[in-house]
Amino acid sequence: MTSPKKRAALFDLDGTLADTGVPICLSANWALVSCGFPASAPEECLRGVGNGLERLIRLLVPQNIEDAQIRELMDHYQRHHRKHWMQGLKAYPGIEQALDTLANAGFSLGVCTNKPQEFARATVQHLFGADRFQCIVGAREGIAHKPDRSMPDLALASLGVQPQDAVFIGDSIVDWRTSKNTGMRVVLVDWGFKPWEDTQGAPLAQHPNDLAAMVMKVSSG
Length: 221
Description:
The protein is built from nine helices and eight strands. It is α/β, with parallel strands linked by helices. The strands form two sheets. A six-stranded parallel β-sheet has the order 5-4-1-6-7-8, with helices on both faces. A two-stranded antiparallel sheet has the order 2-3. The protein starts with 6 loop residues before the first strand and ends with a helix.
């Protein structure tokens, strides 16, 4: 008797599973002001979310800033975030039910995010418990950020699932590119930090209540 094919749903974190805008903006502005730069408006800060911490910081300061000062800003951000990462943090309403539906349908669940591993694991386990996701892959030394395929490949290897049997779920063009670079199918979400102008033909979930059915449809596609 042939065993059922293993399937996976890999999720971005910030703007997809969780509304992390408040703690991200608080830590970014703490870093900016501590280093003598003006604070940024929330919408300006959130435009940089999804590309990793260094990219976020670089988008909020003048282009001629030296690398040493970027590292100082990142250090201030991380020190502040370690104390305040839970402030204003929340899962999007309906997302837990979507995860339960997918798990009950036989999907392995993973997280693949450009958020630093330390904060990615803490956020996921705080909001969803220690056992809901079979793997959590965040940014760490020696692994290229999304949209490079290195991080999702690591997640898929951990889950024992081939790219063609996985669906990537995210809220940004970075996530769309990640799916294409890895050979996964994709579902984009419309409740994240950046409004969609062009989804490149990818399916777009308007609400977490729609997500599980859309992922299952795309997976069986």
